[in-house]
Amino acid sequence: MTLLERYNIDTYGLNAVVIGASNIVGRPMSMELLLAGCTTTVTHRLQKTCAIMSKTPTC
């Protein structure tokens, strides 16, 4: 979130895909993005559709 704020990237209303739901990075990041107004999707790191989902422009 610090990088997004530093470069003045407005995340409100964007779609975000978080690949991986670890307690250290994935889940906290998804919550930060939700609080910033993103529509957030969390996928398992081994899910086969991750490559497709991550190619769409998101925050």
From TrEMBL:
<dbReference type="InterPro" id="IPR036291">
    <property type="entry name" value="NAD(P)-bd_dom_sf"/>
</dbReference>
<dbReference type="GO" id="GO:0004488">
    <property type="term" value="F:methylenetetrahydrofolate dehydrogenase (NADP+) activity"/>
</dbReference>
<protein>
    <submittedName>
        <fullName>Methylenetetrahydrofolate dehydrogenase</fullName>
    </submittedName>
</protein>
<dbReference type="InterPro" id="IPR020631">
    <property type="entry name" value="THF_DH/CycHdrlase_NAD-bd_dom"/>
</dbReference>
<feature type="domain" description="Tetrahydrofolate dehydrogenase/cyclohydrolase NAD(P)-binding">
    <location>
        <begin position="1"/>
        <end position="51"/>
    </location>
</feature>
<dbReference type="Pfam" id="PF02882">
    <property type="entry name" value="THF_DHG_CYH_C"/>
</dbReference>
